Amino acid sequence: MQEALEGVKVLGFSRLLQWPYATQMKSDLGADIIKVERA
Questions:
Q1: What SUPFAM superfamilies does the record tag this protein with (predicted)?
Q2: Which of 2, 12, 31, 35 could hold 26 in an S-S bridge, CB 3.0 to 4.6 Å?
Q3: Cα separation of 22 and 28, whole Å?
Q4: DSSP H or E run through 33
């Protein structure tokens, strides 16, 4: 069965609690997540 966001790529620039949680939910729906962090 295909997931809702399968094949979608998401860039995650978030640092606060709510935004990483939303990114995780997108990952759970099948999206590929690329997390960008400050060096």
A1: CoA-transferase family III (CaiB/BaiF) (SSF89796)
A2: 31
A3: 10
A4: strand 32-35
